[in-house]
Amino acid sequence: MKRLVVVSNRVADLSRSAQAGGLAVGLADSLRQRGGVWMGWDGQTLKYDDQPEPRIRKIGTVTQATIPLTEQDYAEYYLGFSNSVLWPLFHYRLDLVEYKSVFLDGYRRVNAKFADALTSVLQPDDIIWVHDYHLIPLAAELRQRGCNQRIGFFLHIPFPPPEIIAAVPRHRWLVESLLEFDVIGFQTNTDLGNLQHYVEDHLGCRMEQDGRIRIGKREVIAGCFPIGIDVDAFVEMAEKPNEEVAIETQRRDILGRKQIIGVDRLDYTKGLPDRLRAFARLLELYPEMRKTVALMQIATPTREEVEAYVEIRKELEALSGAINGRFADFNWTPVRYIHGTVPREALAALFRASQVGFVTPLRDGMNLVAKEYIAAQSMEDPGVLVLSKFAGAAEELREALIVNPYDVDDMARNLCRALTMPLEERRERQAALMKRIRKHDARHWLESFMAALERGETQHAA
Ligand code: GDG
């Protein structure tokens, strides 16, 4: 087997359990199994560039190679082009895009820096797998340095329709850079279809039924590779008794109360304000539900230096305060809003102890929380997943209660349906959903992508 070299903006801390973020979780699960090299930014920012060789550290089966960035790189490449241009743009939020030409300069400069660092660790037989929107130009940079290994790319976030991409300056350069990879992976068929529209409308190329695109003399394979989780590991974690969660759960059981849970990075794509409003609407529409249910929302801090994130945090704090002010009683707090990071083991136990998993992003590449919630349920008395139709996961998880995250009444009605669903129906849905997350788990994701990258297999081949 060839050595796998994974590249992403950040490398996950493989020794920590409180890692928040889908890419870190999904990749760590997959890479631990196969072993290999993982290269990325070490999270440090320096005043000046000192062109260091990557720092090498071995953790179990994985060798990590990390580099620092300068303060300017961080401002222009990370906060700038990656998170103030591409992130909102790819999540269909043109209103939040803040484009500056220095951001693009920084983006190109850091991709060149990644290519330099990577060249120093690459061996001729390696296979390279690049992750996410921060590193779209990396294949082109590597090719310029004479790298002729196979290079794959996986986009963890959505790929929007051409009319949206076309709003960003140099969009043609961006998509042409993407097409320098040998394999391009997306989470859903919708994303894959959007690339097809772009190459046909703007580049005059065709994408074949099996995802092959011919550009000049080269052939690129595009495909849909839905990311998954390590199901058994999560089941095991959820089944382990967790004392603190158990005490809370017993108290709720005695009072006959149910819990709805939401867990997200505090990101404007996750639909958090309307989620809280939907919960308040539930209490309004069904007054008999008051004092019988509470919403626990864990919102993990993320990208706090970007203005849009400061705004969403303020909005959520005000909303949860207002809902509690309006509905709370001396012995019942309707919303528990936690702005912080919870250890993974506690998360799994909380999912298991919650009767509803409430996952309502306005747009999401996949959403691993939805899959983790399913994995954590017991078959004897499973909870119900209420899932946004705009999460990539909704393409697969069809037995969840699918909702429109822009429609507060629709979400409130479905919350009520979930809270009152008969046991038999809950079991049927749970069994079907469990089958689905097992079919497309972390291992399947890695292996199907590798089949395309190493052997040129396509997704739709007969
Ligand atoms: C991107 C795409 C795609 C969250 N809070 C805590 C915590 N988490 C963990 C969750 C889950 C992960 O972080 C979040 O993953 P998601 O998939 O839900 O979302 P993004 O971070 O936006 O991930 C997404 C993903 O990449 C993978 O391709 O699915 O669409 O946007 O695992 O459990 N973990 C811990 N404490 C927390 O407080 N330990």
Which key features would you list for this structure?
single chain, 462 residues, alpha/beta, Rossmann fold, 44% helix, binds GDP-alpha-D-glucose
In a nutshell, what does this entry contain?
The chain has 16 helices and 15 strands. It is α/β, with parallel strands linked by helices and 462 residues long.
Write up this protein:
It is a single chain. This protein has 462 residues and is of the alpha/beta class. The chain has two domains: 239 residues, 3-Layer(aba) Sandwich (Rossmann fold); 209 residues, Glycogen Phosphorylase B (Rossmann fold, 3-Layer(aba) Sandwich). The protein is 44% helix and 19% strand. Helix 1 crosses helix 16 and helix 2 crosses helix 3. The model has no long low-confidence stretch (mean pLDDT 93). Keywords: Glycosyltransferase, Transferase. Pathway: Glycan biosynthesis; trehalose biosynthesis. Homotetramer. Its EC number is 2.4.1.15.
